[in-house]
């Protein structure tokens, strides 16, 4: 009797570099907040105005998460009132180019994605497409 080796998954969430990166930038706001800092230091209020639709609470949570991940740093200037600016760290800046590439892919291809979705929704799921009928003679 042949011995069957146990097949091990070679793609896992715990070891996948893609999923780890997506965990960092895939929140609704993270990429937009990173883009808000791509030109250097920016004040909180400026970011709030630049990122359309983000609430103060969500901006604060997003900046804190990115700071925790080592992508953003906070600069405090002891003025009255205290001035706080945010910028990308070297690690955060190293993420800009891959994100810009992904953004360009979206600009170049998203229309095709929308067309595919419309076609899929119109035709239905692959499971709902009838198979070729068996005809009797």
UniProtKB/TrEMBL annotation:
<feature type="domain" description="HTH hxlR-type">
    <location>
        <begin position="16"/>
        <end position="114"/>
    </location>
</feature>
<keyword id="KW-0238">DNA-binding</keyword>
<protein>
    <submittedName>
        <fullName>Helix-turn-helix domain-containing protein</fullName>
    </submittedName>
</protein>
<dbReference type="InterPro" id="IPR036388">
    <property type="entry name" value="WH-like_DNA-bd_sf"/>
</dbReference>
<dbReference type="Pfam" id="PF01638">
    <property type="entry name" value="HxlR"/>
</dbReference>
<dbReference type="InterPro" id="IPR036390">
    <property type="entry name" value="WH_DNA-bd_sf"/>
</dbReference>
<keyword id="KW-0805">Transcription regulation</keyword>
<keyword id="KW-0804">Transcription</keyword>
<dbReference type="InterPro" id="IPR002577">
    <property type="entry name" value="HTH_HxlR"/>
</dbReference>
């Amino acid at each position: 009797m042949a011995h069957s080796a146990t097949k091990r998954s070679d793609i896992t969430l715990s070891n996948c570099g893609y999923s780890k990166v997506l965990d960092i930038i895939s929140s609704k706001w993270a990429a937009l907040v990173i883009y808000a800092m791509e030109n250097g230091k920016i004040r909180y209020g400026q970011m709030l105005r630049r990122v359309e639709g983000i609430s103060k609470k969500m901006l604060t949570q997003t900046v804190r998460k990115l700071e925790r991940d080592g992508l953003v740093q906070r600069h405090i200037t002891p003025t009255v009132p205290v001035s706080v600016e945010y910028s990308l760290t070297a690690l955060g800046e190293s993420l800009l180019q891959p994100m810009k590439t992904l953004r360009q892919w979206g600009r170049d291809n998203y229309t095709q994605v929308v067309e595919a979705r419309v076609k899929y929704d119109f035709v239905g799921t692959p499971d709902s497409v009838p198979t070729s009928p068996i005809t009797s003679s």
